[in-house]
Amino acid sequence: MTTATGRIALFIPSFSDGGVEKQMVALAGGFAQAGYPTDFLTRPGELPYLDRLDPAVQLIRLPAARNAQREATIDYLRTQRPLVLMSAKGKDDLLALDARDAAKNAAGGTRVFLRCGIHLSSRPKMVSRNPLRGLWHRWRLRRLYARPDGVICVSDGVADDLAQLTGFARARIAVIRNPTISAGFDARLAEPLDDPWFAPGAPPVILGAGSLAPVKHFEVLIEAAAALMRTRELRLVILGEGKERARLEALAGSLGIRDRVRLPGFVGNVLPWMRRAAVFVLSSEREGSPNVVTEALACGTPVVATDCPSGPREILDGGRFGPLIPIGDAAAMQRAIAAVLDAPLPAATLQSAIAEYTLPRACAGYLRAFGLAG
């Protein structure tokens, strides 16, 4: 029987512009620098963050069409025979497992790992008003998670939720923190930011970042900021793009703060913005392990976050490194932001919160989970 090589393949054909993509690019470089041949399988096109991919990583472009991606992945497994194929996003999990099964005889033992970065039971389809719809999705998840060789989660809360929802044994789930602090972090942090709102002497800036989607609840952040602006000279910047843009801009206008709110769109490097912000605010209704929170802390920037399932509480150590507030509560958010602005924690204290979120620690954890290191 043909044996698999020591090659690691990161599988992300649904690549977009989120935090998962940044983390996987960093991990690929970490594996390659640790001496493991590493492939990065993704879709065609001009994609963000790929300029950060380590030159030692082999970038493999899959076709754009989903059916063609399946056939190309099967062919890849048959010819390259990686030891590990890790699916990085839930959209790609079934494709990875089906390709492994179709290529099994020739792949010679490739093992598929699924990486879960979201709190599954909080998704709208899992809490649908139609109980049959929720049961259907739970049944599908249980079938899906009966198939991988291993599962990796980004937080304890995500792992606990996944085990309960799918029946996958909690003891078999590896929890590995995201590699937020990776190669080039300091250089990206030091990049200049030519923006008058962040110039010395300008009013303090409240910062949010993420896709402009309903799940992020940036409308709550705008409402809280508007209340604060009645008595304080402040500005609000929300980085990201999405279908909620028009609604958020209209809300800022209706609250009379349109000239003090900006939505610059997608930004490839958020660190210079975070470094100069007075406070970073996470307003989401659900997160797995929000990279923006760990990035802000790494910059020494105070954080306010919703106590949503499941990452903020773990990162902020139950509120020790930043206030945790109820989801959707603009008044509580207003009070928390005011408290942080009046008495911010020292930067060194905030930075100490993310000691586990480094590329070397993450790589070591993944290699242990893959059975490649002790």
Brief account:
40% of the residues lie in helices and 15% in strands.
The proportion of residues forming helix, as a percent range, comes to 25-40%
CATH-wise, what's the superfamily of the largest domain?
Glycogen Phosphorylase B
The topology string of helices and strands comes to EHEEHEHHEHEHEHEHEHEHEHEHEHHH
Number of strands: 13
Task: Name the poorly predicted regions.
Answer: none
CATH architecture of the largest domain: 3-Layer(aba) Sandwich
Question: Explain this structure to me?
Answer:
40% of the residues lie in helices and 15% in strands. It folds into two domains: 8-179 and 358-369, 3-Layer(aba) Sandwich (Rossmann fold), CATH 3.40.50; 185-352, Glycogen Phosphorylase B (Rossmann fold, 3-Layer(aba) Sandwich). It has 374 residues and is α/β, with parallel strands linked by helices. The chain has helices spanning 19-33, 66-80, 90-102, 104-107, 131-144, 156-166, 185-189, 218-229, 245-254, 271-276, 291-298, 311-315, 330-342, 347-352, 359-369; strands spanning 8-12, 38-42, 58-61, 84-87, 111-116, 150-153, 173-175, 205-209, 235-239, 261-265, 279-282, 303-306, 324-325. The chain starts with 7 loop residues before the first strand and ends in a 5-residue tail after the last helix. Helix 2 packs across helix 3 (90-102). Helix 8 (218-229) links the parallel strand 8 and strand 9. It contains 15 helices and 13 strands. The strands form two sheets. It has a seven-stranded parallel β-sheet with strand order 3-2-1-4-5-6-7, with helices on both faces.
